[in-house]
Write a structure and sequence with these properties.
four-stranded parallel beta sheet; eight-stranded mixed beta sheet; alpha/beta; 11 helices; globular; 338 residues
């Protein structure tokens, strides 16, 4: 099994819109505007552009960590707002880009996490006009509902299996395995031995499965194991808060501590959260659970070696090379423009 929409970004957007009707409605009522953009550079002639559509931990790990291994006079960072607190110490000059192209004409290689988000999409279009190479870096786990790769792009992926999955039989895109910086960093941490019941990592915000199905899996696991439910940071909408209140009233404890995974002292479980692999990388027992997993979910678990609850062994630690994924990404970008 591969992507549900392996080529057509518009079809993927329509599916995404159906899964998030309120967000889509609000977006349709807002006038289309050029995305906000701030250009960060330490020289006037960077030939590598890193395009950052958001500052989530997974995006920062994938896109900004390679800066530690790149000559900063050759790099520019394009972000929706001032990003200098997240960049390596240097004399960064930040300037808003309000008119004209987003990329300077010296750029020959572009690294982005997505071409379906505003800055990534604009950068992809400009790269196509100038002949710059466009690289998409994997920053999370890939389900069949992930957006397709843009034509003629190169994907920097976590594993060979992810590369084949994301390409989904296409010959106009390539892939190179670099690994996951997020999981590599998690592997450098040793979590404390677990004590007490496990913690369920919430995913009510996910679009891949119906909300009622995600809630059922969470509730069943919490009742079976006396687990605490840990809401995802995105579970701030009214429906999610009402669900949290119902669970609390029914005796399912909520973990609202915000404690880091490495400090939780608990086994973790979820339907398919990246946190399961992060916890496993730290040495914590980690599981996945769904009362009746659809075929794609079972194949997803197999691809990432996620062990379902009830197996004798928990999810194994992901492989960890001596060379970090960030360093591999930097080497690839430098080779690309050499």
């Amino acid at each position: 099994m591969g992507l549900k929409y392996p080529r057509d970004l518009d079809q993927w957007r329509q599916w995404q819109g159906r899964r998030h009707l309120l967000r889509t409605l609000k977006s349709s009522l807002s006038p289309t505007q050029r995305p906000s953009a701030v250009w960060h550079s330490v020289s006037d002639t960077p030939d590598i552009a890193i395009v950052l559509d958001s500052l989530t931990p997974s995006n920062r790990a994938a896109l900004l960590t390679p800066l530690a291994f790149l000559p900063l006079d050759r790099v520019a960072v394009l972000a929706p707002a001032i990003a200098t607190p997240h960049l390596p110490p240097a004399r960064w000059l930040a300037s808003s880009v309000t008119t004209g192209p987003l990329l300077r004409d010296t750029v020959r290689s572009v690294l982005s996490a997505a071409h379906y988000l505003p800055l990534g999409e604009s950068a992809y279009a400009e790269a196509g006009q100038t002949g710059a190479h466009y690289h998409v870096i994997q920053h999370g786990l890939l389900t069949p509902f992930a957006p397709p790769l843009p034509p003629d792009a190169s994907a920097l992926v976590w594993s060979d299996q992810d590369g084949h999955f994301w390409q989904s039989g296409r010959t106009d895109v390539g892939s190179r395995t670099v690994g996951s910086q997020l999981l590599w960093e998690a592997g450098s941490i040793r979590a404390a031995a677990p004590e007490g019941p496990p913690v369920w990592l919430g995913q009510l915000h996910g679009a891949e499965l119906p909300r009622a199905e995600m809630a059922r899996a969470a509730e069943e696991f919490c009742r079976m194991t006396n687990a605490r439910y840990r809401p995802h940071p995105a579970e701030q909408d009214r429906r999610s808060r009402r669900q949290h209140q119902r669970w609390a009233a029914a005796g399912i404890p909520l973990d609202l501590s915000g404690t880091r995974l490495s400090q939780m002292k608990a086994a973790v479980a979820s339907v398919f959260s990246t946190g399961v692999l992060e916890a496993a990388a730290m040495g914590l027992p980690a599981w996945v659970y769904h009362p009746a997993p659809p075929r794609w979910l079972s194949e997803f678990w197999d691809r990432y070696l996620m062990h379902p609850w009830g197996m004798s062994e928990s999810t194994p630690e992901p492989p960890r090379d001596s060379l970090s994924p960030a360093e591999k990404v930097a080497l690839h970008l430098l080779e690309d423009i050499s």
